[in-house]
Amino acid sequence: MSNGPGEVHVIGGGMAGSEAAWQLASAGVPAVLHEMRPVRKTDAHVTDGLAELVCSNSFRSDDAENNAVGLLHEEMRRAGSLIMGCADRCRVPAGGALAVDRDHFSAAVTQALEAEPLVETRREEIAGLPPEDWESVIVATGPLTSPSLSRAILELSGEESLAFFDAIAPIVHKDSIDLSKAWFQSRYDKGDGADYINCPLDEAQYEAFVDALLAGAKTEFKEWEKDTPYFEGCLPIEVMAERGRETLRFGPMKPVGLTDPNTVRQPHAVVQLRQDNALGTLYNIVGFQTKLKYGEQVRIFRTIPGLERAEFARLGGIHRNTFLNSPRLLDGTMRLKADPRLRFAGQVTGVEGYVESAAMGLIAGRFAAAEQLRQPVSVPPRTTALGALLAHITGGAAAETFQPMNVNFGLFPPLATAEGKRRIKGRDRKKALSARALADLESWLGAVPQAAE
User: Fold this and answer.
1) Chain segment 395-436, per-residue pLDDT in tens
2) How many Cβ atoms are within 10 Å of 260's Cβ, its own excluded?
3) Mean pLDDT for the stretch of residues 377-392
4) How confident is the model at residue 329 (pLDDT cuts 50, 70, 90)?
5) Helix (H), strand (E) counts: the chain
6) Residue 27 and residue 136 share a domain
7) pTM of the predicted model, to two decimals?
8) Does residue 283 sit in the same domain as residue 179?
9) Rounded to whole angstroms, how far apart are CA atoms 6 and 31?
């Protein structure tokens, strides 16, 4: 009778670490999940739960035919993802998007891992590099890696850290929203047609709001933080306002697809709020990440029609995120070239977004499981969303200009076009890319690593 597979240590109990541990256990490989909370707190987390959502509660579009992140959702579901399974069970109305009750979601992930006999959770900080007798390690510490571990990794790799600021949007108590001014509607009536609360602004109100954002007192950065760039996909609202007075009207405050029932017209601009918990008592202000000081947030956001008496369950905030220059530091299976026993997963690899982070945990867990089972490491086809993301961070992106990336169809290999035929474009192209991805995914999923009998 052969010895069973050795254990894999997973550092970090966020989206990626939780998913990696689940994938290991699903393959019959024991996992030790190390989570430093509550022993050591972070600047962004507020609970001790695994897979806590610290920013939005949205996993973005759930359209697998026309949207790359929706396709990634479906691929992960087919791969037995814990994160997607819990998200589906904890979803709240969000039009065509997948949004979750953040507390129920974290509790579901935590309970599932605590009930899994092949996963041992240890509440402790791993200070510095993992012990040398840990033969297989997945580092999934996310953008809030503890300083001691971050320094150790940087010293080992000989690489300068990249960093950016990530801002958090405020959450409002629903019963404090004035629904005589605001109304329920999804843009273009998608989803259930009434998944968002909309607060309308006329031109004068919009201009005054932009002026207030520009003049509002902001969080002061420390000297060593001042040159850290923002991630373009999560800009603070006041930074967007600084780029031009109309920027917000073409971004998070765009009014298209919405009709104010009080005027029966499209408003000049609109602020949307999305349900944040299953009870429907909390709503987050969509796209309103901010570095405004707390007092300024309350004052300025209460100038929005419908939010004059808004009570905030959480105000916006800002924290510093770090990530590796993965194209230079990691090999094709996300192992650190300087120490291959260390494999990385999640946002620290340079993917952006909850789902993308969990996806990297899923892949890392499968890779580590295959190694422990002495089976070939099977890389997902680049034609899949999983494979496209992996290829991008492990060599597809230029190391000199590497920045965090959401999944998008631009990362996928182009469709083959028969000679003399027109290239497929627009929505037809997206559908064709998605169909190809799901077909190619099946062969990869057929190579699921399994423990020996």
Assistant:
1) 888 887 787 888 999 899 988 876 556 678 788 999 999 999
2) 21
3) 96
4) very high
5) 12, 17
6) yes
7) 0.80
8) yes
9) 9
Tokens, residue 247 = 């920027």
What pLDDT shows up at residue 144? 62
Give dist(CA 364, CA 346) in Å, integer: 9
- Phi then psi for residue 403, to 5 deg, are -140, 160
Last residue of a domain, one of 272, 302, 320: 320
Shared domain for 369 and 296, answered yes or no, is no
Enumerate residues 6+ apart whose C-beta is below 8 A from 60.
67, 69, 70, 97, 98, 353, 355
**CA 231 – CA 239 distance, rounded (Å):** 11
Residue 135 has pLDDT above 90, yes or no: yes
Cβ contact 330:123 at 8 Å: no
Which pair of structure tokens corresponds to residue 193? Answer: 């047609």
Pick the closest to residue 90 from 119, 57, 60 (CA basis): 57
Q: How many whole angstroms separate alpha carbon 332 and alpha carbon 378?
A: 11
Tokens of 272: 């949307």
Using a 10 angstrom Cβ sphere, with 0-12 exposed, 13-18 middle and 19 or more buried, the burial of residue 313 is: middle
CB 213 within 8 A of CB 253: no
Q: Are residues 37 and 58 in the same domain?
A: yes
Across the range 342-370, mean pLDDT stands at 95
The per-residue pLDDT for range 238-296, each reduced to its tens digit, is 999 999 999 999 999 999 999 999 999 999 999 999 998 777 888 999 999 898 999 99
Name the token pair of 47.
Answer: 């609970």
Residue 403, domain member (yes or no)? yes
Q: Is the domain of 275 the same as that of 218?
A: yes
The one-letter amino acid code at 308 reads E
Q: Is the pLDDT of residue 14 over 60?
A: yes
- Number of domains forming the structure of the chain: 2
| pLDDT cut 70: percent of the chain above it | 88
- List the structure tokens of 397: 């992106």
Report the alpha-carbon distance of residue 285 to residue 314 in Å, rounded. 11
Contacts of 374 (CB under 8 A, 6+ apart): none
